[in-house]
Amino acid sequence: MITDIVEGIADKSESALRHILKAQATLRILVAVPVIIVETILYLGSPASVAARLVVLSILYCVYILALRVLVHFPQIVSSRALLVATAVLDPLALTAWLVVTGEYGGLIVGFYLFTNLGFGFRPRRPLMYLCQLTAVARFLLVCLGVPYWQEHLTTFLALLIPLLVVPMYAGMLIKSLRESRELAERESKAKSELLAKVSHELRTPLNSILGISESLEEQIVGNLNEKQLRYIGIVKESGRHLLELI
Question: How far apart are CA 196 and CA 190, in angstroms?
Answer without folding.
Answer: 10
